[in-house]
Design a protein that fits this description.
- The protein is mainly α.
- It folds into 2 domains: 191 residues, Chitosanase, subunit A, domain 1 (Up-down Bundle), CATH 1.20.141.10; 56 residues.
- 61% of the residues lie in helices and 2% in strands.
- The chain has 11 helices and 3 strands, in the order H-E-E-E-H-H-H-H-H-H-H-H-H-H.
- The chain has a 3-stranded antiparallel β-sheet with strand order 1-2-3.
- Strand 2 and strand 3 form a beta hairpin.
- Helix 4 packs antiparallel against helix 8.
- The protein is globular, with a radius of gyration of 19 Å.
């Protein structure tokens, strides 16, 4: 197996993540260098360490979290150079499962959010440059449907364009200079989870529809607590999901 390109990929990812941020529009909440408080809490709990502010994130912890929680989660060491970076960056910004789904859809296999034997076989049989470009295009298309696009969209757009350029070049065999670890700033990058879909976006694309059904179903469960108001909210949400699904199916049939 070729040497891991994790170090170079991490340096490139961190150039987009900035330092500490707690932007009110960011669903990730308090975030230090791309690591959210929730992720940091889970990391320290697994190591039997007391919880503390993500502001106190240490460099060794940061590298370990990025390696285990994102790079290893999408089996990036088993992916071609260039494509590994595209999937890794997507995992950091939108979660490993979503990044895996973009990769699987680009490769033409079932999108279950887990990079396994079948996914790796399809990737091996494909063109890594094309897969990287396809993944980035799918990623940008879904980012545009998120409620926080007006806030973070300009930065996300630049980020995906840069990831697309670099990942396609690397996957095509172009030699690029090794990036240095960046000097961090406090510019908020914003997380882009698929759970941040708007209702209008759910009816517009298969990507949004799949995420929207899961998210709105969860909202309905949360609203369905004892009491008529909660039940009304839950039924309204489910009705909206059903209407969006029907509209989508009709458009697909008419296309």
């Amino acid at each position: 197996m070729a040497a891991s390109s994790f170090g170079a990929a991490l340096a490139r990812v961190l150039r987009h993540e900035g330092g500490f941020s707690d932007h009110p529009a960011d669903p990730g909440g308090p975030t230090q260098t791309g690591v959210t408080q929730r992720v940091y809490d889970g990391y320290r709990a697994r190591k039997n360490l007391p919880p503390r502010s993500v502001r106190l994130l240490e460099e060794a912890e940061l590298v370990d979290i990025y390696r285990r929680h994102y790079w290893d989660a999408v089996r990036a060491d088993d992916l071609p150079v260039g494509l590994d970076y595209a999937v890794f960056d997507a995992a950091v910004n939108s979660g490993p499962a979503q990044a895996a789904k973009w990769l699987q859809r680009a490769a033409g296999v079932v999108a279950d959010g887990q990079v396994g034997t079948l996914t790796l076989a399809a990737v091996t049989a494909g063109d890594p440059a094309r897969l990287a470009a396809d993944l980035c295009d799918r990623r940008l298309a879904m980012l545009r449907t998120l409620r926080t696009w007006p806030v973070f969209g300009r930065g996300w757009g630049r980020r995906v364009a840069e990831v697309r350029r670099v990942s396609v070049a690397l996957a095509s065999g172009t030699s690029l200079a090794e990036p240095e670890m960046p000097v961090f700033t406090a510019t908020p990058a914003g997380k882009a989870p698929p759970s941040d879909l708007s209702l209008a976006a759910v009816a517009r694309s298969p990507e949004a529809l799949a995420g929207g059904l899961a998210v709105l179903g969860a909202l309905a469960n949360g609203a369905a607590q004892p009491g008529p108001l909660q039940w009304a909210v839950a039924l309204a949400v489910l009705a909206a999901v059903a209407a969006a699904a029907v509209a989508f199916v009709r458009r697909r049939r008419e296309a």
